[in-house]
Batch of 2 targets.
Target 1
Amino acid sequence: MATLTSGANQEPNVVTAEFNPFAPGMLADPYAMYRELREQAPIYWSEMMESWVLTRYNDIDAVLMDGRFSSDRSRAETRFSQMMREQQEQYGPMGNTQTMLTSDPPDHTRLRRLVSKAFTPRAVENLRPRIREVVEYVLAEAGDRGEFEIIHDLAYPLPVIVIAEMLGVPPEDRHRFKEWSDTVVATLGGPFTPPEAMDAGRKAIDELAEYFSHIIAERRAEPKEDLISGLIAAEEGGQVLSEDEIFATCILLLIAGNETTTNLIGTSMLALFRNPDQMQLLRDTPTLISSAVEELLRYVGPVHGTGRVPKEDIEIAGHTFKPGEMVFTLIAAGNRDPAHYENPEQLDVTRNPTDHLAFGDGIHFCLGAPLARAEAQIAIGTLLQRFPKLRLLDEDPEWGGTFIIRGPKRLNVAV
Ligand code: HEM
């Protein structure tokens, strides 16, 4: 694999580090690879990904904050993006409809403003009692059994129940909802996605389109106090969101918030089991939960990277990125940059690093962050308080996901 180094302080030394998202053990622990890249080639050219790969906190943040980078990844002139464009065209009703995640201002501003009201910290504060109820409900039965599985019994149902209720989807449909969401998320590996997964993804999108078109029609006839009704009202008031955009927004909220939050609860609990002193500290001082969740997002945040495409020549740390190139920021690597955090490889639940990059930064900063934080705080806090002797049964669980979103597949525990 060809490797180039760049960056202001970089000697043109031999580089042994490489970014291989498929290296054995990569899902279980990518952090050693990130460290090598950061030390040897912080702005690294990956032939395999046809992309620059960035691992330093400051460089990543500079990219995410810079409006000269586009979030429309299909602008990149790479095989990867060509395949993305083809996939998009085949995706039927989503077609070329952009979501806020892949659009730039002014579309981004318009799409985000309409949904953002539902996700302000204050709006989410009002959801906390309901989140607590859902956590208690799913744990009550699990706890009675003496042993349970954190992912299946808690981390998996919690975000889907909450987002389904916010959107206004009937609760009995949430299993189908979750299945669709997982199937679509499995297609996010771009050209590395197996064809069967792409086919399944396309089918799921068709089914979702059919499903949402009924709900949208129902809400048009009879609005309720839910997010879908809100999106329709916005559309009808000022022609602000098209039907396709409403649908694309619903799918985005569904898939952006499920797998991510499930994995955050999973990676966080595993990190706490592996750092028993920190787990004990958090148990003894429950008020640390909000600081602890920020630290867990920094230390084991489930989203590892995101891409941007320069719209013009842009210089960062002595390197000039060219229009049409793909720039992949490894936010999980930036979160362990020793130039930004002291002892970054150590979990310290008292650190409260609210400037971490786990939710991105700039105008695309995760819209669902207040919700994800509330769900994680309540889920993790409740697990620790309710089960003082919680024990992990399999110390080395299997990992799932991709190099972009990862988490343990199962966490079997005894109470
Ligand atoms: C632990 C959980 C989560 C993590 C780690 C996470 C991470 C991220 C990251 C890194 C971005 C920025 C992507 C980029 O800049 O390209 C993002 C954007 C986004 N997230 Fe999250 N997310 C989480 C949960 C949620 C939830 C619960 C929702 C909603 C229900 C959500 C909705 C969104 C949306 C709509 C965007 C796009 C924002 C925009 O483009 O302006 N996320 N998320």
Target 2
Amino acid sequence: MKICTLASGSSGNCLYVESGETKILVDAGISLRQIGLKLRKLDMELSDIDAVIVTHEHSDHTAALRNIGVPVHVARATVHLWSSKVNSLREFDTDTSFVIKDLSITPFSVPHDALDPVGFSIESGQGKKIGVVTDIGSVTALVRERLRGSNALVIEFNHDNDILLYSHYPWDLKQRIRGRLGHLSNNQASELLSDLVHSGLRHVVLAHLSQVNNRPEVAFESASSALRRTEEGTGVQISVAPRKTLGEVLAI
Ligand SMILES: [Zn+2]
Ligand SMILES: [Zn+2]
């Protein structure tokens, strides 16, 4: 399996996932043109993509869905938002697995202020597993359960509590970000990471960093100190997803 972030953060999210002959995108929150340009850097075209699977309806995850021209899988509660805009729309039920060629995908509920937001557990025919959670205000037992045993994790490291506290954001927005339905802090994400670490975990991608309320080196240090405290954590490679440029291509 291979993964690579095309963009990550509040200005747009898109993650490329490949397994054998199967190529999908998780979210399409940048322009179609940008998706095309970035796929070309990976020696692909948009027409090579089998499907897009969508975590939730916020525009930083869905900006390119209109006219994207490949099948789009969305949660049942959000179908009405897309039925007149997306040609090949497929719906999934939260916590019911579905298959795209050799990938088995399980969407699971996450706490976030959207209609029916999900994270994804994505398993390949070769028995590899990737867990993806961005835009999650708090960590539930279900989230831990669905992510357990992943060989690679893409986890939101949205904000640092101290940087957020002193940033210029208005108080009500700070409250929304910190709230149970908002976004994950470095501390929350690191706690989740240390709970999920196991000998088969190879990569963790720190995703959806706030440009204002976080810094890549602060998020990295938070994740790396959480991993250092565990025996299996030393074998895990950490990457920080860049906001607007291609991330590392990670082989799992
Ligand atoms: Zn988002
Ligand atoms: Zn969101």
